[in-house]
Specification:
Layout: H1 2-41, H2 60-67, H3 71-77, H4 91-97, H5 112-126, H6 142-149, H7 153-160, H8 172-178, H9 185-199
Helix pairs in contact: 7-9
Length: 209
Amino acid sequence: MLQKLKNNSSKIVSIGLVAFGVILITYFGLRFVRSFVRLQTQGLQPGITDVSAIRPWMTVRYIAIAYAVPEEYILYELNIPYDRRNLDRDLVELNLRFDFGEWEKSSGNPPPVVRAVQEAIEAYQQTPVATGIDEIDKWMTVHYISNAAGVPQEYIFEKIGIPAEGNEDVFLHDLRKIYHGDIRFEEAIYKAIDEYHIENPTTTEVEDG
């Protein structure tokens, strides 16, 4: 009887953990989709340069892609520790979690972290820095990957065999649709980056914060 109770308890705990995991995945997944939809409908498209378009509901990840500024660079400039980074948190949450300053939504002014992000992007636009890139995902653009990896866009496009014109700020998953899914862009870009750095071994990267 005791063993049976232990087994039942273990099953309940396991089910509870799985359910909790599903809730977390669903929560952050919905946030991801919501941010994506808002970005698509409210005009912040990849390739933008005007930092005044940044809004409190945006996440660092989407801002990074839109402005083609490496995530690592923005987080480094914000002094957010590597082990406390969550790229799916919006700027309002970051402002609160990392004490960027007091903010009242009713004030009509953006939270202080928005200005900090704007300054980071402006600094990058003045002096671009290759941070390196550990993983290439379908939501990235060649423009973003180029800046993060320190590899010219033209070199990447030449290696993956598609024209650069008009494709610099297109998401990889959209490029796959345009070119009928015949190209494994992630693999081809990884290879292009490796080949470029072999040919050009001097690259400066931002250290993790």
